[in-house]
């Protein structure tokens, strides 16, 4: 008798928690930005599937319509938000263009290993951030030994197997170059490539990042180029409300092809994706997260068809 009386109560608790979780997922944009609350919660939204799984375990102990509803409601909301990433990704066959990007980490140890891990993938274009000191020079030398064309502007580098224009700085509100653009003259037509390193973000200290994202979005939207790729460390998860600033008019390679969330940071055990490859006027056909070398970010290899 006592077990029968407890069952409805437990079902109500599961349903209540499930509704609260579903509301958090559906209305996370209403969370306050004070003290970085929104930043932390929105960055970790993909991991809320763990809470859904825990709800399922609790519901299995006391099966009832209420407990089942308490699991189904947040599960449906979570899946509706992240279904593009959940689709199995197929390996691209002979894409027209491949681009690798990585924040190699300032003053990293064994820089040759990091550079070679990218070169071994034989990408057509490489975008690198945080080139600094001796390690940065070693990476630059490795890239120049492999690619015919390339340039470094401050801590940003871009290399290509095709001819490219001299990179120019893009103003994103930072006192030193954190965004550059060049035109790569591929066999199938010109592609404007932006290499970007958006300022880092900490809970409660997001204004510099948000301003930079806004200025970058303005520069890209006003760019008349038919084909555009924006690659680099955006210091913004796709689930962060501020990602739409730059991502609204561009297509995220990972979201386009699926295959999981493609987390890139931290390099040893990634829990979020701060690095992105976004495009306009191209068809994303592949997105692979590569090894980290010795960096604290993993590299991305994005593939495109014209």
From TrEMBL:
The chain crosses the membrane at residues 12-31, 37-58, 65-86. Coiled coil: none annotated. Keywords: Membrane, Transmembrane, Transmembrane helix. InterPro entries: Endo/exonu/phosph_ase_sf (IPR036691), Endo/exonuclease/phosphatase (IPR005135). The keyword Transmembrane helix applies. It comes from the Bacteria. Gene3D superfamilies: Endonuclease/exonuclease/phosphatase. This is Teicoplanin resistance protein VanJ. It comes from Brevibacterium salitolerans.
């Amino acid at each position: 008798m006592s077990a029968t009386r407890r069952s409805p109560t437990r079902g109500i608790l599961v349903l209540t928690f499930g509704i609260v979780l579903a509301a958090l997922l559906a209305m996370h944009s209403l969370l306050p930005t004070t003290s970085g609350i929104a930043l932390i919660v929105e960055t970790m939204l993909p991991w809320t599937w763990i809470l859904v799984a825990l709800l399922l375990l609790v519901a299995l102990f006391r099966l009832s319509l209420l407990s089942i509803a308490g699991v189904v409601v947040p599960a449906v909301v979570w899946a509706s938000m992240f279904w593009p990433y959940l689709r199995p990704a197929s390996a691209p066959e002979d894409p027209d263009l491949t681009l690798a990007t990585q924040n190699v980490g300032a003053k990293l140890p064994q820089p040759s290993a990091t550079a070679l891990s990218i070169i071994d993938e034989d990408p057509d274009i490489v975008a690198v951030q945080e080139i600094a000191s001796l390690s940065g020079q070693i990476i630059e030398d490795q890239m120049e030994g492999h690619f015919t064309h390339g340039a470094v502007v401050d801590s940003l580098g871009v290399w290509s197997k095709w001819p490219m224009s001299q990179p120019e700085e893009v103003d994103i509100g930072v006192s030193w170059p954190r965004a550059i653009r060049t035109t790569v003259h591929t066999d199938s037509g010109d592609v404007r490539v932006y290499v970007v390193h958006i300022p880092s973000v900490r809970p409660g200290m997001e204004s510099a990042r948000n301003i930079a994202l806004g200025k970058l979005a303005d520069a890209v939207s006003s760019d008349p180029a038919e084909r555009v790729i924006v690659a680099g460390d955006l210091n913004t998860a796709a689930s962060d409300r501020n990602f739409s600033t730059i991502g609204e008019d561009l297509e995220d390679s990972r979201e386009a092809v699926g295959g999981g969330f493609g987390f890139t940071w931290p390099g040893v055990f990634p829990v979020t994706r701060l690095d992105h490859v976004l495009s306009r006027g191209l068809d994303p056909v592949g997105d692979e997260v590569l090894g980290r070398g010795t960096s604290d970010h993993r590299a991305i290899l994005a593939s495109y068809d014209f």
